[in-house]
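Lecture 7 notes: from sequence to structure.
We start with the chain below.
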Amino acid sequence: MRTSLMTGMLASLVALSGVGIAPWNAITAHAAQATATPATTPAAPVAVAPLSVTQFAAESWIRAKNNDLNAILALGAQINTASPEGAIVARDLAQLANNIQKRETTRTEQSEKLKGKIRDLLAKEPTPLNLSNALKEAVELHMLTQAANRDALLQKPELRQLVTSAEKAAREAESKGEWLMANELFARLHLLLEEQGTFKPDWRRQGDRLAMLRLYNPKRFYELRNARQLLDDPAKPLPPFNDTGEDFNDKLRGIDRRSVVTAIARAADNHVERRKTSEVLVGGLTAIRTLITTHDLDDIFPGLTDANAVRELTGFLDTRIAELEQITRNRGAQPTPAQVSELLSELTGLTARTVKLPDAAVLHEFGNGAFDRLDEFSEIIWPDQIARFRRMTEGSFIGVGIQIQIDEESQLIKVVQPIEGTPAQRAGIMAGDLIKKINEKSAVGMSLEQAIEQITGKAGTPVKITMDRDGQEIIFDLIRNRIPIRTAKGWLRTGNADTDWNWFIDQESGIGYVRISGFNETTTRELHTAIRAMGPAMRSLILDLRFNPGGLLGEAVTISNTFIPEGTIVYTEAAGGVRQQTESAEPEGQLVRNIPVIVLINDGSASASEIVSGAVRHYARLGEIKALVLGSRSFGKGSVQNVLPLGQAMQMKLTTQYYHLPGGELIHRRDGARQWGVDPMLAIEMLPKQISDSLTLRLDADAPPEGRVTRKPRPGEEPLGEPEPSRLISEGFDLQLETAVMLLRAQALGAREATAQGKSPTNN
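Predicted structure tokens for the same chain:
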């Protein structure tokens, strides 16, 4: 009975997993159609010899390398469940089958609901808000739809009508100065048509405008955000505006013309795409045009209310833009650094005389607009951003040692957890404490960025934080210190320290688990420490690189070398395809040998994590290591950014090269590309809700045991329940992780079965 039940579930899943969400109205069972036989000539049953677990382990690994989950499930239906090992593998497969079936049922139900919502919203008055809400549902529907059906979905009359109406509303909102709504509409249009890139320029232009508003007139920016919030929930306004640290004059201090000219000259000489200086300058001048036509800046820069002055400046900008565009089209001689300096001198002089903008503001926006024409990763790092940039790139920062987020109920900044051994933890700050004041300044209404800027500072300096704990105010006088950033996490948090982890996802089967959140100068050391802590008991390993944004190249190479004994890991090419640098593995760097490894990736895996997963995939396909890359296609950020100084107070980050994997594949997603990143060897899809729920559950489970709490659901949401990481697998939250565990447990059980029978396990 048990065997037949499991076989039936697996057989039904083989048919189900071939089913796609039809473009709008129906679902077609492609797999069932393909295997149908005429009713008049029923196929005779074929006797199939039961598979041993050893055989299943070997065959399933081969099928996984060939991206064939259906074949794995079909093999599972043949497993001999008479042995204890066979019963466990069949149980795992039946559970995976059930969870995939739940995914497809959920996909169908949610898709139908979303289609209904879109129809209802399109039937209403085509206001910008209704159209934006319809786009939100359309983006979610697009994400729910299987990749093969997405192009067809976008061609449906309902979505084509929605895109046309939303674009019209977005352009009207921009013309009326309704910046937030214009940005919202263009952003959602861009998400829906991201691969085509149709609305990317509009989305970036609106983002630039809002960044200007956020910098120069943060109070007005707050008012616009609050008005938008009240459209969704009139009873829940934003907290009061907090202007701590918001004076733009302080943020622009230290900006000079020479630094901006130097940045543009270096970009022209060294950018990987060799963007023309004329094209870059058009971007800078266009940004100034955006600045002077953003009417919500009038009360900050009163000169913008002078129509004649604005007209004169606009005429100058339009003339120069036209001249530079002609140079670009006709491939004329490019402006020299001296000519760039002359243009900036003329521009700042004219803006000071007409609309009376400060030079620093003109240089700031010109520089941002110019670098916008390069790529999304190149930028000028302005004086106020230097400390933040260093925090992001170094393996430590100066602060007090607390992880913070906005509390949804109180809208105050909440302590997620204090870091073990830091000033905050030693002083007694606890998870759940709410920050009311920082250095006697109210924290009510502060953004996370504002709070971080106030809490961090120079090592050895004091900071006073007033906390609200269960209605009582507690004052903590702290001394800032260097706080290490640990990037390697395990399966289950066992204590308060960042190193207190159970690294095994399945101790009995010897399945280790290490999740890497980024690549800094200590990442390889942390991974190797975890591997050595598991020791000989580790018989397989899951390396989880999902949502890993990357980091240091050197660490990506040494992490790759941990699994790869020798050969090219990655190489770089500069403009014109000129090969620059090759990074290779060395035999002495390999730490993990002769055990199966599965690397998990998704569309949040970028840069260094793509180098690691891409190199592992290459050598696994060659058969030189026993490994799989599992999940979904990675982000596609495969470019080298060089950080260069610009005078005393500024730096620049410039994309100078592209990363290529050992087989020559380009990681980077270039404009208009349909192929990028690292494709998994075994693709396992997760629905948006599965992703968000698994992330929430994982975050809650990562808290120290004494601070671990069950998260309260948001209005309209079902409670997630206890933050126990095993639920990620047992309840179908994380199908990618569950599939990896199933495959590796089969490997362990197959080896155990083979050993018991006196055989050698097959190595694939």
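Points to note: The mean pLDDT is 89. The domain at 488-568+586-635+666-749 is CATH 3.90.226.10 (2-enoyl-CoA Hydratase; Chain A, domain 1).
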